[in-house]
Amino acid sequence: MSLLELIAAADARGLAVSGIACLDRCLPQPAGAADPDPLRPLWAGCADPRDWPARLAEARAALAALPDPPESVRRIAKLLGEAPADRSGQELRAWADACSALALDLHCAHDAARADATELVARCRVGDPEGAGPLLSGEAVRQTRILEMLAETGGDAPMGAGLRQVRDASTEGRRVLRAAVSRRARVPR
Predict the structure, then answer these.
(1) Distance (Å, rounded) from C-alpha 17 to C-alpha 170?
(2) What does pTM read for this prediction?
(3) How far apart are CA 58 and CA 41, in angstroms?
(4) pLDDT in tens, 158-174
(5) Residues 6+ positions from 99 with CB-CB distance below 8 Å
(6) What is the pLDDT of residues 63-95, one digit of tens each?
(7) Is the Cβ–Cβ distance between 143 and 159 less than 8 Å?
């Protein structure tokens, strides 16, 4: 299934978790004494929907407190500000879809510059990563794998089932992106 099909089929828990995982992977290395994991409160909100509104407020506040955030963090904060307080319905699906697109876009931006970047992101979302750089295609695979893991642990599984595996996959994805950004910064232009 493509990313778009997986998002369309996901339940509310899967949408919330996949959205947070997408945003979490795109956070840059924190500067100075900044919280290294400002979205941490939301992971607990993913396990229990009753905690979602309060945890969403905490994560928004943590991102708002970052001094002089880079453009990627401003985009993440904007999208987090648009997250529905009620973890259900089409608003949640649209938000998770936007998180997926943002993550792919940010990963694509760190691959080699391409005039067809928007087209590549769109193709990756429908399951055709041909021609995409390693960061973009890797992110598309990671998103697909996470949505599939969430689908496998949905239904009658306990609320927190599968969250640890998803968080581990997301953390690894964040390390990959941060390493690529760091290497790129060290290479003279």
Answers:
(1) 10
(2) 0.92
(3) 7
(4) 666 788 899 999 999 99
(5) 18, 19, 20, 22, 23, 79
(6) 998 888 999 999 999 999 999 998 888 999 999
(7) no
